[in-house]
Amino acid sequence: MIIHVPQGYSARLAQESQEYYSTGMYTDRFSSCNIVVCYDEQSQKMVLMHVDTEVINSQAQTAKILEQIKWVGSNCKVKIFYRTKESAKHDAGCDGEFIHARLIELLAPTQISLESTVVQEEEYGILVFFDDNADNKFAHKILKKDDSLGELAHHPQEQKLLNVRKIHQLIGMRAKAVAASQGAYNDPSTTFSLFDGCMWLPLANHELQVDTSHPITAAEMNSFGREYSWIMVAREAAGISSMLREHMPVLKADFEMGCEVSGDLEWYFTQDPELLLRRNLLDVLNDSGYAVPVSSADKNFFQKCTDALKKHPLPLDEIKTLLDEYCDEKSQSTQFKEIIIADFPAQLKRYYDRKYYVDMHQRYDHTISQAKLQALVGIKAYRSKNYQEAATHFFAAIKMLALCTLKSNPDLAAAYFNYGRSLQQLGEYQRAAIFLEQSMQLREHFTCPKPSAEQIAKTRAALQECQSSLKSLHAGSDAVPSLAM
To answer: Are residues 345 and 432 in the same domain?
Structure first.
């Protein structure tokens, strides 16, 4: 599995991470953003950072960039991948050189080895991984959009995180400007690293929901009807952009600003991909702001597509076939047809992007269920004193949980504990101590809900027992340590 790093965030990886099926890290969809890769040949650690303007303009976030470099090791080397205006000819808004210059300025005092590479327009993503055949064990690939890539592991809250982050690029900005003018604005702390090398880090609540504590922001969010289509949301958001101009410069046209956040806003209110697609396609066909069907081909497509959109479940293949036939048909060019050709594929893409995450969560739920079954089989084997079999099942549970759930999941702490206990019974004290220590750290600082004091004390006692056995280099008594669920 390859760890996905979204825009504005970072992830860590160490050589031993491969034991958990984390074989590399990947990020893509960058225009003005810079991709920063840090690696140390001796520590065999690496960090992948997707640095955007929000990160580089935040003192708190740039401090976290330096923290990531420090974690990698004293012999850290840095590679920066970025686009110039020349290399991104068809992206007029690309300003990768600005962020690159700021990064160079930030990293100059560290005196680390630094190398920059200009990414060409057709190059889409950056993959970094450990390569046992390479001299320094580190390798990277610059991929094009259609290049094959292994299965990606996403942060379980990635979609919601990016959704809220995008909305806040418009919604709440007016409240922020007003509060700042009154000296009353405090920028909330935000996460930068999503993956610590073994597990996904939990996010704060304010990163997963739109902050409506200010009355201006609350009014902005209340202005959107929950039944609004994409275009209706875009128009309302354009009005908010217009009012924002009274407080700060807005570089894009109001309707363009509205269109950029419209999809995220409608998803924030209604997390049903099929319902949104049906609503939006019907709106394209019927909204008075669009052109009406004129030619016989227009009217034929309109009627057939309207009938298809009334069916449950939504017949996607039928709709795509109707669209393909209509687009290929050599009928007269009309404004209606031009709008259909532009808007239908855009709405279908939004549907598939949303469905990707819905399907991902279903896979994660299934994997978590399988991990719990592995843990139950492990407990049964442990109680039967089949410690090797128990260890196999507990470690399988760890690998399943590590990439599809958060570090705060109690099942993860239990799996680490039970695996450590099994290794302890097998006399593998050094490795057992590592996993028991990890369980201790999880239960003391991350597990939610917080374990009882008794459970934490039991975990600490198990760790101390293992450390004592490691020091004395013998297995101890025949008593079987109990498992903490």
So the answer is: no
Evaluate whether 392 touches 374 at the Cβ level (below 8 Å). Answer: no
* pLDDT recorded at residue 31: 85
Residue 240: which of 266, 220, 219, 226 has the closest Cα? 220
Query: Which amino acid belongs to residue 119?
Result: V
pLDDT for residue 482:
59
- Select from 239, 254, 271 the last residue of a domain: 271
- What is the C-alpha separation between 459 and 140, in angstroms, rounded? 40
What pLDDT sits at residue 291? 82
Q: Which residues contact 31 (CB under 8 A, 6 or more apart)?
A: 83, 88, 91, 93, 94, 96
Q: Decide which of 250, 271, 292 is a domain's last residue.
A: 271
Are residue 39 and residue 77 in the same domain, yes or no?
A: yes
pLDDT at 216 over 90: yes
Q: What is the CATH number of the domain that holds 53?
A: 3.30.1330.200
pLDDT, average across residues 118-146: 86
**Closest Cα to residue 359, out of 118, 86, 154?**
154
Distance CA 69, CA 55 (A): 15
| Residue 480 pLDDT | 52
Mean pLDDT of 285-296: 84
Domain that holds residue 140: 2-153
Q: What is the pLDDT of residue 210?
A: 96
Q: Are strands 138-144 and 45-51 parallel, antiparallel or unpaired?
A: unpaired
- How far, in Å, CA of 136 to CA of 356, rounded? 36
Q: Are residues 446 and 403 in the same domain?
A: yes
Average pLDDT, the chain: 91
Claim: this prediction has a pTM higher than 0.70: yes
DSSP secondary structure of 360-412: HHHHHHHHHHHHHHHHHHHHHHHHTT-HHHHHHHHHHHHHHHHTTSBTT-HHH
What are the structure tokens assigned to 484, written together?
């903490």
Q: From residue 157, give the alpha-carbon distance in Å to each of 153, 411, 435.
A: 12, 18, 26
- Model pLDDT, residue 88: 65
- Confidence band, pLDDT 50/70/90 cuts, at residue 251: confident
Q: Flag whether 369 is in a domain.
A: no
Number of domains in the chain: 4
- Which helix (H) or strand (E) segment holds residue 53: the answer is helix 53-56
Chain centroid to CA 371: how far? 22
Residue 312 lies in a domain: yes
Residue that the structure tokens 């470099």 belong to: 69
